[in-house]
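Aim 2, interim progress: modelling of the flavin-adenine dinucleotide-bound target.
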Amino acid sequence: MRIIVLGAGLAGVSTAWYLCAAGHEVTVVDRCDGPAMETSFANGGQISVSHPEPWSNPRTPGLVMKWLGKSDAPLLFRFRADRRQWMWGMAFLRECSPWRSHTNTLHIARLAKFSRDELVKLRQQLNLQYDQQTRGILHTFFTEQDYAQAEPHANLLAELGIRSEVATAEQCRQIEPALHGSRATLMGGLFAPEDETGDAHLFTQQLATACAEAGVTFRYGTQIDRFDARQGRLLGVSITDASGTRGALVADAYVVTLGSYSRALVRPLGERLPIYPVKGYSVTLPAGAGAPRVSITDESRRIVVSRMGDRVRIAGTAELNGYDLSIPRERTMPLLNRALELFPELGEVALAQSWAGLRPMTPSNVPIIGAGHLQGLYYNTGHGSLGWTMACGSARVLADVMTYGKSPIDIPLWRK
Ligand SMILES: Cc1cc2nc3c(=O)[nH]c(=O)nc-3n(C[C@H](O)[C@H](O)[C@H](O)COP(=O)(O)OP(=O)(O)OC[C@H]3O[C@@H](n4cnc5c(N)ncnc54)[C@H](O)[C@@H]3O)c2cc1C
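Predicted structure of the complex, ligand included:
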């Protein structure tokens, strides 16, 4: 089949790889000048199989109320006159019920485990180097109440076949000696030794190079304007290239991997994708002598600190504020200050670079993978807070569905 993949982020480039490997003729289209320049550019870097629980869980509504109006809140609702934001918020609340949250956790865990296995295979096959680390993730807790969650969380992970160990504060410091300098009082942790980290931008760049060598065509600097459809049939996709020239691209099938912008493109076709942009920030700086080597998730403040070669990155916060991509200091400074509290010798603060990205979030955090309602229309989008963790597995699932008509693992596929 001739297939056009719309979007060259983590989802698009990994989809292109698996489709090309299955023998298809693939073209990738993106408005940026290279791969992974938007949400996949500077994320937290965690392949976090040990965090399959979606944000929509029974504890979240209480936390949202507690944090309402606080400018440094980990989860911030900026209420807008935006019907979509309210509808999405309602759907999110529905997913917070214990039963739905548990079911979503099972789906995410299955996909995340499969995805990590696919990533390891791909890394070995293509010798990809992206500042990856296979030292695990240490989830840390700084209040008794938070630490009380460690044991039940470890039990849940064990049921899901995901390895983890509850750790005392002293054991945490043995796992990550840089915690010895912490000014915050550590209660304990949960260590997931099989989790990984890496730079998603570097990964996507390298995979795009491998794709090009394998025959995939990339059209960067190309704006995707709309789908052309008549009488329920897709005829092509209208584009504008970097010189402003308009044109159309035609294929046998089209895969939408446009992250937070997926919904708008297919809405005129009558498809309603439940995706809303959830903004997050990261700060990256040259690592100092006291920077951690093991990736840390501070469960009490909802931030991650990941080592990427000679850099260290702090990432976090979730903000519902439309498509705004501004980077206010009042949102990034709490991230940096907290990381400095944990690791006073973290790095060269004067050289810190801040970034913001829009997580393409579904209310359940289960991604949208599968066929749309028009012939030739497919999706691999809506990966929310775990788009790097689930990238390779989701792409492999979609490629198998498009090629062989079935998924290699049991996860819910998007309905036609
Ligand atoms: C602060 C933060 C921290 C995160 N940390 C982690 C983490 O530690 N682990 C994890 O697993 N996940 C993490 N994520 C989530 C992860 O980064 C995302 O889920 C993932 O990057 C989404 O990839 P994508 O390819 O779907 O979207 P994108 O990377 O946004 O790709 C979409 C592409 O579509 C293109 N595009 C859009 N519209 C058009 C158009 N009209 N025409 C042409 N091109 C278009 C864009 O240019 C872009 O390249 C984090 C996210 C954030 C914001």
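DSSP finds eleven helices and 20 strands in the chain. The CA atoms of residues 29 and 219 lie 5 Å apart.
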